[in-house]
Design a protein that fits this description.
alpha+beta, six-stranded antiparallel sheet, four-stranded antiparallel sheet, EC 2.7.7.6, transferase
Length: 261
C-alpha cells in the first residue's frame, strides 16, 4: 500500500492548497465531505427578541445572525470528538437608530466566541427604531445545517499535460502555463505541464488533443483547495477532519469485531 503524502502548494490566511498522494477517490471524497459536514463550529441556533422596531421580521434577522461566522476556539473544545460539548454562548444586542447594526456590535458572554468579521451588516435602523435580543450560539455540524460549515472545499485530479513540439505554436502553451504559475518540464521532444491548478487549452489547440497533446492522470494524487469562513484556522479544519475520519474508522472496525465475536 503506497504511503500517504501531503504537500502544501500555497498557504494564505483564509485558504490552503495542497496535494495529497497515495489515496484513492473514495478517500478524497470522504475528506471533502468530512470537512463540509463533520467539522463542528459555533453558530447562532436560537434568538430571543425583546424588542424589534426594525423593517425586518424577527425570523429574517434570526436567519442573518445564524449565518454570521463565529470564531471557534479549537484549543478549548474537543472538536474531533464524535460527541459535541454542550456549551452555549450568549450574544446580546441593544441598539437604537438611526444607523446600521453590524456583527461587531454583538456582545458575547465568551470573549473567544465572537463574529469572525465585525463588519457584516445585520439591519438598518431608522430614527427611533430599537432592536434588542439575546442570541444563543452552540456547537454544531454542517450535516445538520449549512450555518455550521467551517468553509468550502473542492479537489481535482492531479494531471500532466504532454505537448509535443510538433504542435504549431507550442511555445504559446508554455508561456501560458508559466503565467499561470504551473510547473513546466521541457525535453527535446515535448513539454510537460503539471496542473496544480485549472488549465484550459485555447481553442486553436483543440484539434491536437489526443495527437500532439495528451493529458495524463497522476494515479492516486489530488489537488485540494480548502477555504475557511473564519471560524477556524484553515489548517485546523483539515487536521480536525482527518482526526474525525480516523475516529469513525476506529469505531467501525470495533463494531465489526463485536459482530465477529
Amino acid at each position: 500500500m503506497p504511503m500517504v503524502e501531503f504537500k502544501i502548494l500555497e498557504k494564505r490566511p483564509d485558504s490552503i492548497k495542497f496535494i495529497v498522494s497515495g489515496v484513492d477517490v473514495p478517500f478524497a471524497n470522504a475528506l471533502r465531505r468530512t470537512i463540509l459536514s463533520e467539522v463542528p463550529t459555533f453558530a447562532v441556533d436560537e434568538v430571543e427578541f425583546l424588542e424589534n422596531d426594525s423593517a425586518l421580521f424577527d425570523e429574517i434577522i434570526a436567519h442573518r445572525l445564524a449565518m454570521i461566522p463565529l470564531m471557534t476556539p479549537h484549543e478549548r473544545f474537543s472538536l474531533d470528538a464524535l460527541e459535541l460539548d454542550d456549551y452555549t454562548v450568549t450574544l446580546s444586542l441593544e441598539a437604537e437608530g438611526p444607523g446600521m447594526v453590524y456583527s461587531g456590535d454583538l456582545k458575547s458572554s465568551d470573549e473567544d466566541v465572537k463574529p469572525a468579521n465585525p463588519n457584516i451588516p445585520i439591519v438598518k435602523l431608522a430614527e427611533g427604531q430599537r432592536l434588542t435580543f439575546n442570541a444563543y450560539a452552540r456547537l454544531g455540524r454542517g450535516k445538520d445545517h449549512a450555518k455550521w460549515q467551517p468553509g468550502f472545499v473542492y479537489y481535482k485530479y492531479l494531471t500532466k499535460i504532454h505537448v509535443s513540439k510538433d504542435v504549431p505554436d507550442w511555445e504559446e502553451l508554455k508561456e501560458l502555463a508559466e503565467r499561470r504559475g504551473l510547473p513546466v518540464e521541457e525535453s527535446d521532444e515535448e513539454i510537460v505541464i503539471t496542473t496544480i491548478k485549472a488549465f484550459y487549452l485555447p481553442r486553436k489547440f483543440e484539434e491536437h488533443i489526443g495527437k500532439g497533446i495528451r493529458e495524463e492522470i497522476v494515479p492516486g494524487s489530488f489537488v485540494f483547495t480548502v477555504e475557511t469562513n473564519g471560524e477556524l484556522p484553515v489548517e485546523e479544519i483539515v487536521s480536525i477532519a482527518l482526526k474525525i475520519l480516523m475516529r469513525k474508522s476506529d469505531r467501525f472496525i470495533n463494531e465489526l469485531h463485536k459482530l465477529a465475536d
